[in-house]
């Protein structure tokens, strides 16, 4: 069955855009359903790097997209503020403190520790705040380490929050693994699973393929993950008797569920890919199948500068930090580029290319369409000073003159924006909007270029003000759709580009 809508149906959608402004496309699809989006969640042991930046932007844009689609969204950051990596941070912090006080240290003294300058800065801040003799005043080793831990973690989190603020990312909740342990939430969650018969003591088969050097066949406390679709059952206790990170993560997701989030979205780095099945199985088990977990894995960002790779190694202390990238390209470029590929596809980020002014740079191409639209209105005001260009005049324009094939293609693309938002929200894929914005910008630029070759298609027709007003209505609607998309992305629309 071939159905065709009357062209007026399409053209009248431009009035809908003008009436809604940049809120055009907002949907009630989510019906206020609560959704928890957890993203970034970097260990508080150093500064954020470019890999963290991708997860930060994807998570933040996804949260904004879901809000635009009518969901009630909680933006959350989970702090892994206990365990082995925090012990290393404490050791690094205390050694740097002693070094700053004049104690001679060699390179070997820092083997296996965090080498970044931020650890030294944290140690210096502690000496400035607590006094240079603060360690000498503490006689108990446990108290010393607790004080070091609290100060170092707080310092690192303050640095992380400051960097996130620069990229326009804020969270509603900062959850703490340490707090879960101290309140007994981990023990309670595991007791719940045990009552359901989902925990047992058993011996796992060795991993397939090459046997790890540290493999030890021994009885372990295991979660029956295979009952819920995982490949193998998963350990819950270390050889030391402490709970594994997986055990803490089970408790954390149960806590989210108890706070009213039956829909959870976690944005992780690609190195956590092997963790997805076990976590989904755990959520199904601990909530009796009432909660759903969607994990968005963010693949690596390949940094380069004019084609030459930019190396990154956190352990070597030569990390390319988020603040390094922001200093070079700014928030808007960083955010938009991070959304130009699906999250599970590698992303190439060339410092030179993302700032060049060409149609091959999606940031420039979309921003230029928005800026060009504003330029058209400035030109109209100069060329036709007597023409009423107010929103009221546009809202009552005669649009019947919009008949060119390119014009109607652009009008239909504008009208499709609400559905684009809903489909992207349904799939939890904000990158779809980047593709859409690039397409609508292409249609607009194409129509503008046609006007250079065919004067009758120019947006401004001094000999036909009725048609001019119709085309300006289309241009305004196009710019509002781009503004709507950039708003979701956390990018400021450009009104002028030089």
Tell me what the structure shows:
- This protein is an alpha/beta fold and 498 residues long.
- The chain is built from 16 helices and eleven strands.
- The strands form three sheets. A five-stranded parallel beta sheet has the order 3-2-1-7-8, sandwiched between helices. The protein has a three-stranded antiparallel beta sheet with strand order 4-5-6.
- Strand 1 (34-38), helix 2 (50-68) and strand 2 (72-79) form a beta-alpha-beta unit.
- Helix 3 crosses helix 5 (141-166), helix 4 (117-130) packs across helix 5 (141-166) and helix 11 (362-383) packs antiparallel against helix 16 (465-489).
- The chain is elongated, with a radius of gyration of 28 Å.
- The model has no long low-confidence stretch (mean pLDDT 94).
Outline of the structure:
The protein has helices at residues 7-20, 50-68, 84-100, 117-130, 141-166, 177-182, 185-195, 245-258, 276-286, 322-338, 362-383, 391-395, 405-415, 417-427, 431-453, 465-489; strands spanning 34-38, 72-79, 173-176, 199-202, 220-223, 234-235, 263-269, 292-298, 301-305, 308-309, 347-350. It is of the alpha/beta class and 498 residues long.
């Amino acid at each position: 069955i071939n159905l065709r809508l009357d062209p007026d149906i399409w053209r009248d959608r431009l009035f809908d855009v003008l009436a809604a402004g940049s809120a055009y496309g907002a949907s009630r699809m989510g019906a206020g359903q609560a959704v928890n989006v957890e993203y970034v969640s970097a260990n508080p042991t150093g500064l954020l790097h470019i890999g963290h930046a991708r997860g930060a932007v994807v998570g933040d844009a996804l949260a904004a997209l879901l809000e635009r689609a009518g969901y009630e969204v909680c933006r959350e950051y989970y702090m892994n503020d206990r365990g082995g990596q925090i012990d290393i941070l404490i050791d690094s912090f205390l050694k740097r403190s002693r070094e700053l006080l004049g104690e001679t240290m060699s390179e070997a003294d820092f083997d296996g520790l965090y080498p970044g300058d931020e650890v030294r800065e944290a140690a210096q801040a502690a000496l400035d705040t607590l006094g240079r003799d603060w360690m000498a005043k503490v006689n108990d080793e446990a108290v010393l380490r607790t004080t070091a831990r609290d100060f170092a973690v707080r310092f690192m989190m303050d640095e992380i929050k400051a960097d996130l603020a620069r990229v326009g990312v804020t969270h509603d909740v900062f959850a703490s693994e340490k707090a879960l342990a101290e309140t007994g939430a981990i023990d309670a969650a595991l007791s719940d699973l045990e009552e359901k018969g989902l925990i047992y003591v058993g011996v796992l088969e060795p991993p397939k393929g090459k046997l790890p050097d540290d493999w030890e066949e021994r009885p372990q406390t295991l979660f029956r993950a295979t009952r819920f679709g995982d490949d193998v059952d998963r350990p819950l206790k270390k050889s030391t008797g402490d709970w594994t990170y997986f055990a803490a993560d089970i408790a954390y997701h149960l806590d989210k569920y108890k706070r009213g989030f039956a829909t959870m979205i976690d944005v992780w780095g690609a190195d956590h890919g092997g963790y997805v099945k076990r976590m989904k199985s755990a959520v199904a088990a601990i909530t009796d199948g009432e909660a759903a977990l969607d994990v968005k894995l963010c693949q690596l960002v390949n940094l380069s500068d004019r084609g030459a790779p930019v190396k990154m190694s956190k352990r070597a202390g030569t990390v390319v930090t988020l603040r390094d990238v922001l200093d070079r390209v700014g928030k808007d470029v960083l955010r938009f580029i991070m959304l130009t590929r699906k999250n599970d596809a590698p992303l190439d980020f060339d410092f030179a290319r993302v700032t060049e002014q060409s149609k091959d740079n999606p940031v420039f191409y979309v921003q230029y369409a928005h800026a060009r639209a504003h330029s058209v209105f400035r030109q109209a005001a100069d060329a036709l000073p007597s023409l009423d260009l107010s929103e009221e005049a546009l809202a009552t324009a005669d649009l019947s003159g919009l008949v060119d094939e390119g014009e109607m293609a652009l009008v239909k693309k504008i009208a499709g924006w609400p559905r684009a938002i809903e489909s992207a929200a349904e799939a939890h894929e904000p990158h779809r909007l980047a593709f859409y914005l690039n397409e609508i910008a292409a249609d607009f630029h194409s129509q503008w270029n046609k006007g250079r070759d065919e004067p009758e298609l120019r947006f401004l027709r001094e000999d036909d003000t009725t048609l001019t007003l119709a085309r300006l209505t289309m241009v305004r609607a196009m710019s509002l759709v781009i503004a709507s998309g950039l708003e979701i992305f956390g990018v400021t629309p450009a009104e002028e580009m030089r």
